[in-house]
Design goal:
Elements: H1 2-27, E1 34-37, E2 41-45, E3 50-51, E4 56-58, E5 65-73, H2 81-84, E6 87-89, E7 93-98, E8 115-120, E9 127-129, E10 138-150, E11 153-168, E12 181-185, E13 205-209, E14 216-218, E15 225-227, E16 237-239, E17 243-247, E18 253-256, E19 261-265, E20 275-278, E21 292-293, E22 296-302, E23 308-312, E24 337-340, E25 352-357, E26 370-380, E27 392-399, E28 419-421, E29 427-435, E30 438-444, E31 448-449, E32 477-483, E33 493-500, E34 518-529
Parallel strand pairs: 2-11, 12-19
Antiparallel strand pairs: 1-4, 3-9, 5-10, 6-9, 7-8, 10-11, 13-17, 14-15, 16-19, 17-18, 20-34, 21-22, 22-25, 23-24, 24-34, 25-33, 26-32, 26-34, 27-28, 27-33, 29-30, 29-31, 29-32
């Protein structure tokens, strides 16, 4: 084994020496960089991010540095900073590579070699164009400067038209007729649908029908649909036309199905309004302290003495919820999840734990829909502290820029994303349905704004949130938050936080009154509704 290690070491040293001699030979005659080659990109889409492959360039063994000099259009027009601001070029970086101590390598002083310095060139020269750029349809040429250095002297070359970028029209990814259900009345020559919306797509298109051409006709320029001139009414019909959108620029075709329902009648009718329940996770989990479940993840900063944190429900007090009417039939595994903040001896310690629902792209619902997120929850077993305050509450937050990672640390410092607490804006209803003494959900009481104060609502009210004579102790509460157009984003996230508002221990007795209680959540979902005309 020792002989093998010695042989490997000798081979290593020989290879390193050979490499050094070859590099030394190349550097005896340093020269300006030459023969820069990028693989051009054709058909990149308007506004979409672009990343090139790494280029090749002759530098005589020196590490090159790449710099964007300018960008021109095909006609030679020079682009200004409004374009260049989206473009960056990758660079090399120094890295330390750990050395396996078992190899027994040493440095020039005979000390064990722990690491070797190297240059990471994986990203060097790669051109990145950020999403949201303003390059329109056409051809663009990037002029790149490459620089090397050796013994204090620089060598550089500017390569004209080093990289060719072709931008193609951004094709539509969605076609929206609002409302989706539209009435076409036979005998009214002016009756027609609304014009469709194509969010963010290049508007240079025309429209065609892929079916029902004997019954419907479409305006090529606007996408408005009406009854075909030769159509003869015999009975009420419901048609779901497939619409083709064709680019005037590239001739590319995108087909859309189930974007419009035309209901043909001989008398005007009121059309049904569409409601979509989107992202309705089961929350399914089989643990007391999970890292997450179906549709959510868990982040616990302070666990306290919790016996269950966002785990599957075991306490029977919340087990009587009757399945809401909107729950999908396929959600047979719908789970009620529970966070218990106190131990069996009724001791409550501070707790801070998050249930983070999966981030959603809500931008497809920015046209023609009223959007909300909804959930059912029960606060149970909370008793007040000596000053009348609740020890804990279920806080609700939203973010439009969260992309992952811990939301807060144990000291409450924000770490990732911008978060807004929305408890005060929630529309809520208390369950009035009971089975014996157990809360079951429907029917629901009058709507009120703001999530309820946990507990029985008795005693002093230093927070000004109690509702005397109306208990929420062990009652299901139905909540909804209306998402405004300005809040729609590709990274909309809802997070629930069980938070505590005290220090030390609560014993739920005269010495240290108060108990943090438990929180149960079920049936979280988003709801998209077409507004009624």
């Amino acid at each position: 084994m020792k002989h093998r290690k010695l042989l490997l070491l000798l081979l290593y040293c020989f290879a390193a020496a050979s490499c050094k001699e070859s590099l030394k030979s190349d550097l005896n005659n340093p020269r300006n960089p030459s023969d820069l080659k990028y693989t051009g990109i054709a058909g990149a889409r308007e506004g979409k991010g672009v990343t090139t492959a790494a280029p090749t360039v002759q530098t005589g063994g020196l590490t090159p540095k790449f710099e964007l000099v300018s960008i021109t259009k095909a006609d030679g027009t020079l682009l200004d900073e409004s374009y260049l601001q989206y473009v960056t070029i990758g660079t090399s970086s120094s890295v330390e590579i750990p050395v396996n101590p078992d190899l027994g390598l040493v440095d020039e002083n005979g000390n064990p070699l722990e690491s070797v310095s190297a240059v990471n060139t994986a990203s060097n020269g790669i051109i990145y164009i950020a999403a949201g750029h303003n390059f329109a349809v056409g051809d663009y040429y990037f002029n790149i400067k490459v620089t090397t250095a050796h013994e204090g002297k620089e060598y550089s070359t500017v390569f004209d038209k080093a990289f060719h970028l072709n931008i193609a029209p951004l094709l539509p990814t969605n076609l929206i007729y609002s409302p989706k259900n539209q009435n076409l009345v036979y005998g009214d020559p002016n009756d027609k649908t609304s014009a469709p919306i194509m969010p963010n797509a290049n508007p240079e298109v025309y429209f065609e029908l892929a079916n029902y051409t004997n019954k419907l006709t479409i305006d090529r320029q606007t996408g408005v649909i009406s009854l075909a001139p030769n159509y003869v009414y015999t009975e009420r019909e419901t048609l779901n036309p497939t619409i083709k959108v064709v680019s005037n620029i590239s001739g590319e075709v995108v087909s859309f199905e189930n974007k419009l329902t035309t209901i043909i009648t001989d008398q005007p009718e009121e059309m049904p309004v569409e409601t979509i329940y989107t992202f309705y996770p089961t929350l399914n989990v089989n643990a007391a302290f999970p890292s997450g479940g179906t549709g959510y993840t868990v982040q616990t900063d302070i666990a306290g003495v919790s016996t269950r944190i966002w785990g599957n429900r075991t306490n029977s007090v919340a087990s009587y919820l009757v399945a809401p009417a909107e729950r999908p039939v396929i959600n047979t595994g719908q789970t009620i999840i529970e966070t218990c903040t106190f131990s069996s001896s009724a001791v409550t310690k501070p707790v801070s734990t998050w249930m983070v629902t999966s981030t959603q792209d809500l931008t497809p619902y920015q046209y023609g829909y009223k959007l909300s997120f909804n959930y059912y929850y029960m606060p149970a077993y909370q008793t007040y502290m000596s000053d009348g305050r609740t020890p804990t509450d279920l806080e609700v937050y939203i973010s439009t820029d969260y992309t992952g990672g811990d939301i807060q640390d144990a000291n409450g410092n924000w770490l990732n994303g911008t978060w807004t607490k929305v408890n005060a804006s929630m529309r809520c209803q208390r369950s009035e349905g009971v089975s014996g003494s157990n809360s079951i959900g429907a029917p629901w009481g009058a709507e009120f704004i703001g999530t309820p104060y946990p507990g029985d609502q008795k005693g002093t009210d230093p927070d000004g949130r109690k509702k005397p004579a109306t208990t929420f102790y062990g009652k299901w509460v139905k909540c909804a938050y209306d998402i405004s157009t300005s809040q729609l984003s590709k990274n909309f996230t809802v997070a629930f936080k069980v938070a505590s508002y005290f220090q030390g221990d609560l014993l739920n007795n005269a010495t240290a009154p108060g108990r943090g209680g438990s929180y149960f959540i079920s049936d979280f979902y988003y709801k998209a509704e077409e507004p009624k005309n």
